[in-house]
Every structure is written in structure tokens, then in C-alpha cells.
Amino acid sequence: MSRGRDAEYTEYVAARLSSLRRLAAVLCDDWHRADDLVQATLTKLYVHWGRVQAATHPDAYARAVLVREFIHERRSAWVRRVSLSGEVAGPPTAATDQDVVLDLRAAVAALPARQRATLVLRFYCDLNVDQAAEILGCSPGTVKSQTARALEAVRRALGPAPAAGFGGRPAAGAEHQSYPGGAGND
Amino acid sequence: MIESQIRAMFAQIADGEPASSRVDPQQAGRRGRARLRWRRACVAGTSGLAVAAAALAVVMGPARPGPGPAPAGPAAPRQFNPLVPYASFGWLPAGESLIEGGITPAESYMDAGQTGPEWTLAVYARGQCHLTDSASVLNCPGAKLPLSQRAPDVAGHRAFWTSPGLTWQYARGGWAQMTIPAPNLSAVLHNKDGLAGTALKIAAHVRYDATTRLIFAARLAGLPGQWQVHNISYYVPDGGRLSAEQYMLTTGRSRFHPHVGDEGVWTDAPYIIVRPAPAHGTCSPHDPSSQNTSEIINGYRVVVKRSHRGGLPVQELCGAHADGLWFDIQVFGAHPSIDVATLFKDHMRLLGTSPANWTTSPIG
After folding, report:
1. ipTM of the predicted assembly exceeds 0.90
2. How far is A141 from chain B (nearest CA, A)?
């Protein structure tokens, strides 16, 4: 007997569930929330299964649904997310590797959803600017600027590199100049 | 370079994938199917409630005549009772059974299969579907079905193949449509295992005017008289009883907003989900997309959420472990007739996990 729509959906989800969960976890930095996000994404994929099948790259379509769902969910929480930045703004005082990782996680978590999603698409999914723009539904230029702002914000939150000492923050202009490859090189 | 640090951090997060997952693909599929059905029902009811649409269809008269014998027997119902699925499968291939279904005043649908839905049957109330003069298309709520060719009559009624499915006029003014688990009609008609014959046999054995009532894990009492249950999705757990899982209440002031969300929403119409609590079920109490408060109401810990969707305020009340049940009530609109907390506190009683204690009368 030939397979129907539901069988194809079930097979697709079984094969892709783990990768969708990992992507969601990187976006949310929380496996609990990630599962909620994946659950919502799977429902949408079912509703729009015809589009998934018609897509040139079904995985890219699924990834786009998940990322947009993440941004949509977080949009109304913008203010509270941004307020977290106060907790991570101070430079590290005992720079063990683990501290750096924790600070980095906090700094990235404090980014607006769209900026975090941009970083995830660029540095976790390894997408180029055009591919990321397609998923985010924006122009390549916006992806570049979002990446630049995100990296700048993260660097500002982390403070100067340990080799430069822990006293004070560099000027904004100096930060910007220190990231020539961050956003605009693609 | 901070980019490489970020790459490493993302990889570290991804590598920490826990073995256990709360994701339930089957549940997602059920919700997806229910959304598609709800969208179809809501499109049919854009000028008011779907009930009103069904009533309007009576004025418009029965479907136009097409080729082949039109049923001369009794007419199809003008609208269905949402508490009693109108149609049921009388025969299915070995190993397959009813999995889930739903019912609105205009449509009764159900999915059957072995491990997942394979056969989807939709039975429409009188006047909901209209055959074009050339008998090339059957227009049903939210669906335009191109008719490929005549099929053998089903129980003496004219039938047509669609791609890939079978549609037939089950009674005067009433049509049924069944999707067949195949990629296209050619695969059905040339299937070596006799898929076409199987489809015709399933169709011929569909029973109408079923009397099995749905059972509900919650009862609502003390509501104004015009409140009624509308758009129910049910499933069939191991016990075999038709268990309502999600449904909507209309209040007399309910209005449909087609452009909110993927499938549109009703305002002043509580959307209710009640089902046995999954082992790791939660209400996402830290969901940053809404303002959440945790409260104790009627002895149950619940999360009350307030957010906006498509410009509409949304109230939601969720309980993850309420005597073994997981429930969620969601109401859209600025001034609902009864807010979610009051609805739960003063009007709703949960009936536990045993279907033996559930009710066939969700209101009253």
C-alpha cells in the first residue's frame, strides 16, 4: 500500500526530530523551552505539510518555521530579555574557561531574539548571509547588520579580553573596529 | 575570535541533548489535523457561527443534480450534533481502526489506520457541498475537490474518484469524501493490492446516524443558556471510547477573526483542551512570550497567562497536574463574557482520569 500524507510526515519527523531539538535548544538555551518550541513547530509543519513537500529543501523550510516561531514567541518578551543584560554586563573577575563560557552564554541569551537567531543560523547552522536572510525573511544587508550588532553586544557584555586586563571597557568605536570580520565579510 | 567561541558554545549546547524528550509528534499531528479541520469549519462560518451557515444552506437547497443517480431516500441532516459523531466506519482492513476524529455542525470527520491515520473520512451535512453543473468539481467548506472520473456506485449512490480519494453522495443533499493512502489516483486505480476495491468497501460500510456519544473529562455548570459546545476533536484511547480532547464553547457573542494566526480565531469563545496528563507535561510557566502568574484555584496549581496575538488580548489558564489531567483554557478578546479564571473556578469541574467517571454532557 502506498504511503499517505501522515505516514510521510511521521517518517520525516522521526528522522529530523533530533536535529530540530538541537537547533531549538541552541536558540532557546533551554531544553525545556526547546521541546515546547519543537512541539509548536511540528504542529505547524503538519498544517503546512503540502508546502514542506513542495519545498526545494524541506529541511530548510522546517528550520525556517522553527526559527520564525522562536522569534515570534520571544518578540513580546523583548523588554524582559534585554533587562537581563544588566546581569552580564560586568567584566569577568576570575577568567576560568568555564566562567568565560557561562558569561558568553548569558551574553548571547540576553540578545534580542532576532539577533540570537541570526547568530545561530550563521555560527551553528553555518549558513551564509543569503541563506540566513531567506529563513529570517529579511534582506542580506539586515542579516549583516544584525550579526554585527549581536557580536558587538556580546563583546561589550564580556568586556575586554583578559590579555588586555580587566579594568574598564573599551570605547564603543574601538569595539566596532575590532570586528572587521564579524558581519560584513560574506 | 568571538565567533569561534560562539560556535563552540552553540555546539556545546547542542551536544547536551537529553535522551528523554517531551516532544510528542503524534500529538503535534493530532493538533495539526484539528487545526486544519477548525480552519475549514471556521471558513464556513465567517458570517457568524457555522451553525448559521448550516441553516443558511437549507435555504439554498440541496446540491445541484449531476450525472448518475441522485439518492432518492431520506435527506442528509441539516446539521450535526457536535456531541455525537454522525458517521462511523463499519469496516476497515485487518489491523486498522479508528484513531481520532472531530465534529462540527457542518462536518463529521474521522481518521483510521494502523499506527497513524491512513484513511480520512469527512461526511458533510445537507447543503454543505455543491456539485458543479458539469460534475467536474465538488465544492465543500474549505475544499474544492476536482472529480476525476465516475467510480462504481457506493451503496447505490453515485460516486466519483478524486485525487487520491473517493467521494459519494451518501443521502439526499449530503456528500462524503474519503482520502486514500496513495500519492495520486493512478496509484489507487493501478494498485496491485486492490486499494481501489478496499476504498469502495470501506465507503460502502460507513454507518450514518451513529449514536455513540463522546465522553468528556470535565463538566461545566451554571453557564448562560446560549453557551454551547462547538468544534470538537476526539481521540480513541485503548479503551475504545470516543474521548473529547479539545473543543470550543460559543457564548452567543463569539465572533470569528479569520486573519489572526494561521487559521483564524474566535473571540469570546473558550478553547478547551483536557486530556490525561503526560509524564513530563508542563504549562511552560516561564514562557517569556506571556505574563504568567502561578495560582492555586480549587486546589489545583494553575498558570494564568496573558499575552497578545494578532492584536487581540489572550487569556490562558493551564494546569499540568490536576488529578492526573492536563488542561488548558484559552480565550481571545478584550472583554470575554467570563474570564478564564472565573470560568475554571466557578463553572468547571474536572472528573479525573478514569473514563468511567467522565460525562457525555459537558455542559449542564
Report:
1. no
2. 19
